[in-house]
Amino acid sequence: MATDQTRTVDDAPDDPADLLPEESVLDLDEYLDMHAAVGHRTRYEILYRLVHRNEMSPKELEDALEIDDSTLHYHLNKLVDVGLVEKRQRTERGQDGLYTYYRATVFGEVTLTDGVDELIRGEQSFEAMYNSSSKKREIQASNALNSTNSFKRVSKRIGQ
């Protein structure tokens, strides 16, 4: 887990929106909506599977998560609405109709791998540090800074 050791609390902008690049693809509320969406366990598990298994059909997701169709689609729609997941359809050779599947977007991949997954890996790597409350606050601040750097990388990755 890399950290930017040159940044101090004093050089943070007064307005968190000022962390965004001048020509940002998304505004701060859209980034916050993405993080809020992943804050629900079912949505996190959906995104986790889509990032690590590439694409999945609704039936595959239902079976993997052991949830009913309506619950799955409720959470999928939330993830699609905030831009973490995309719904795709295509025809399958030899079959009538369209095959529907879902896959993570680049924002979904970064939010998961540089967000919650990174926090989990950080806890595994720095378990001893968590025993001290002052170290816990330092790690939380470092993780928040890493999240900002992750979104800068995704902006560059999509053409900024």
From TrEMBL:
Organism this protein belongs to: Halanaeroarchaeum sulfurireducens
Keyword annotations of the record: DNA-binding, Transcription, Transcription regulation
Protein name: ArsR family transcriptional regulator
InterPro entries: ArsR-like_HTH, HTH_ArsR_DNA-bd_dom, Metal_resp_trans_reg, WH-like_DNA-bd_sf, WH_DNA-bd_sf
Compositionally biased region (Acidic residues): 11-20
A single GO molecular function term of this UniProt record: DNA binding
Sequence ranges assigned to domain HTH arsR-type in this UniProt record: 33-121
Domain of life of the organism encoding this protein: Archaea
Short name of any one Pfam family annotated for the protein: HTH_20
Region (Disordered): 1-20
